[in-house]
Amino acid sequence: MHTKTASCVSPLTASVFSPTYRTFRHARSKPEFKADKPSTPFGLVALRRRTSGIPARSASSFMRRALNTLRATNDTVNSSAENCHATEIREAQEDREAAETLIAVANSKDFADDEQLEPGINLIQSDFRRNGDILHSTSSDTTSTKRDCTSFNSNPPLHRPRSKSSSNSYATCSAPLQDLELFDPIFLGAVASGLVGAALYVTQIRKAKRGDIGRSNVGSRTTEQANGERLLGFHENNGANPGSLTTLELSDDNAIERVSFDAAPATAGNVTPSVSSKSREISGEFKRQLRNMMSDLRRFSTVDLHGRNLGDDGTSYVSEALAFNDAVLCLDMSANGISERGVIAMCEALQNNACLEMLSLSSNNLQDAGTVALATYLETNPSINTLNLNSCGIGDAGAVALAKMLKKNTTLTALELNNNSIDYEGTCAIAMALAENSTLEMLSMSGNYVGGLGASALANGMISNEGIKGLMLNGNDIGNIGIESLCRALSSRKTKLSNLDIGNNGIGHEAGPYLAAYIKDDGELSSLNLYMNELCDLGAIEICNALKHNAGIEILDIGGNNILAAGAEALAEALMENETLRTLELGYNPIGPKGGALLANAVKFHSKISTLRMGWCKITKEGAWHIADAIKYNQCVTTLDLRGNELGDEGCAALAHSLSLVNENLTSLDLGYNEIKDKGAFALAQAIKNNADGCIASISVNNNYITKFGEVALTEAVELVQELNPDRDLYVQF
Asked: Which has the closest alpha carbon to 687: 666, 673, 704, 708?
């Protein structure tokens, strides 16, 4: 019977097993017990009576009988304690239980005088306390019936709180834990189960310290142990505790009930759970995706694997498809978390590839180590001509490795190193490599730390270089000193540049003469970016004078240079003479209404400009009238950007009047951030209806004060145009 009872209690719960309180039984009532503090053996028990089996009139007599019985019990218990006789102790326990039962079923509300009963209740509880102390001492030994009487005074008295009943419920002191029979099979079975569970737990802790968890005698894991490890996320590192706990991961094939006790972690103290650094496992859905990528690499000439979160393992897996591959010509592997290990695997696969021409590894964590590995491979690569390494964390060491590669490589024509951490040392190394390299045609180093001294070093390297035709140095804080050296070197080169980006470099008006001299000398320059510098009117005037003699520049970005009306006037004069300029970015220059009017007059008849961007130039409604008048006659402008110019409803109405006329060139108009209200929206809607056959395809009026009424008017106008011309696409952005 004991064995069966012990098997019903799991080892895990046996360690915290606590026997329940005994229930009181009565012939005519069955009270329920609710432990207030189950974990405390001497906690109070709230007793609720379903139906009272004792008449109310007999309450007083029951109380007197209970008091008498309890006094007799106390005498018997004291006598038995002195004689140390187990049989008398058991009889005293039974008498005490009977007394407790009589007190429990008594209804306190039926007593007439509570003050008279209070001493009796206190006496009863005092007797209970004394009896409990004696029973606690005598019942602690379950194997012997006689003990030394002095042991009863070895334990201090245990004080138990009183319980106050607040309804038609009874309150009584619970029977202590020692009231259980000494040979109660349920109690003994529970104790045995607890001992067995504790022994198993201690055994497993010892095994964990020896590293035996998860290994059988033959070196293989059981099914339950393996499931437990997968469920709790265990992993073994070199010499690490095998019981370390990682992130909880639940899978479909892991069942909670199958977790064995062997999988319990062994922790000591305040040990912080370790975080697994294991790479992404190639299995399941991820493996299927990788196979699809490999299939694309073998079939298509251009493959975009941007942002697939491949990591080093996925990159190594996919790179196998690059070996002996004669299909893919352009591969984008950017933003995949690739580091040195993935680059090495890719280079090993590319050793047997002679077809790949364009490779992008931007936004990966190559750092200097990965860059060195890639540069070493590219020294002898026969096919790659375009390499994108933007935002790869490359420093001077990586730049030095790339410079060494440029001295030997003869196939690379375009190299992008934007947004890295290349400083003066790396810039000097690249400059010396450019002096020897003759095949590289485009070098982009925007967003690094070149500085003025680095720009001077690049200038010295560019003098001897005969291949570079595009140079991008945006955002490198070159300053006036660096621009002076660079412009002089570019002017003396035999091979002229076609694309120069030196925006956002802190260039002031002092550099205006050097820029002007270079613009006059370089007739092949087609794109010049001077965005976000500090040229002001003086520098703008120098550049505009050079534009009169330049016949090559088609794209000029001079926005954000604090140019006022004087600079706008010089630019208007240059536009009247220049016949090659097609795109002019003038935004973020406060030229005002006067400057807007001067430029509008230049564009009206004389200019060949097709894209005019004048956002945030403070043109206002006065300047809008002149621009609207220029649109009526201009036959070249296709894109007009007038954002943030405080046009209002009047300026919008002026432009709408020009749109209502037959216009076969203007296709895009941006009027955002101009404080336009419903009146201006109604004018635009009417212009769209009047010119249903026009070429306008996109109108933006976002971030204005147009309500639902104006939006409805514009929407109806667009619907009408589409009904009249089903083949025409017109888009209005609110």
From this structure: 666
Per-residue pLDDT tens over the stretch 481-501: 999 999 999 999 999 999 999
Among 631, 637, 633, 596, which residue's Cα sits nearest to residue 614?
596
- The rounded distance, in Å, linking the Cα atoms of 569 and 544 is 10
Q: What is the pLDDT of residues 176-196, one digit of tens each?
A: 444 444 556 776 777 777 887
Task: Quote the CA–CA distance of 125 and 274 in Å, as a whole number.
Answer: 54
Structure tokens at 641: 């950007």
Give the span between the Cα atoms of 344 and 717, in whole angstroms: 59
Q: What is the pTM of this model?
A: 0.64
8 A C-beta contact, residue 530 and residue 558: yes
In 10 A of CB 239, how many CB atoms?
A: 6
C-alpha atoms less than 13 angstroms from C-alpha of 559 in its C-beta half-sphere: 15
Region 663-686 average pLDDT: 94
Cα(695)–Cα(697) distance, rounded to whole angstroms?
Answer: 6
Question: 3-class SS at 71?
Answer: helix
Separation between Cα atoms, residue 191 and residue 197, nearest integer Å: 10
Residue 703, classed as helix, strand or coil, is coil
* Residue 308 near residue 314 (C-beta atoms within 8 A): yes
Which H or E run contains 529? strand 527-529
* CB-CB contact of 381 with 346 (8 Å): no
Model pLDDT for residues 408-451, shown as the tens digit of each residue: 999 999 999 999 999 999 999 999 999 999 999 999 999 999 99
d(CA 425, CA 395): 9
Residue 613: strand, helix, or coil: strand
Task: Compute the distance between CA of residue 445 and CA of residue 366 in angstroms, rounded to an integer.
Answer: 17
pLDDT given at position 210: 56
Other beta carbons within 10 angstroms of residue 430's beta carbon come to 26
Gap between the Cα atoms of 196 and 504, Å rounded: 77
Buried b (16+ CB within 10 A) or exposed e, 271-286: eeeeeeeeeeeeeeeb
Q: Are strands 330-332 and 170-173 parallel, antiparallel or unpaired?
A: unpaired
Q: Which two tokens stand for residue 628?
A: 């609207």
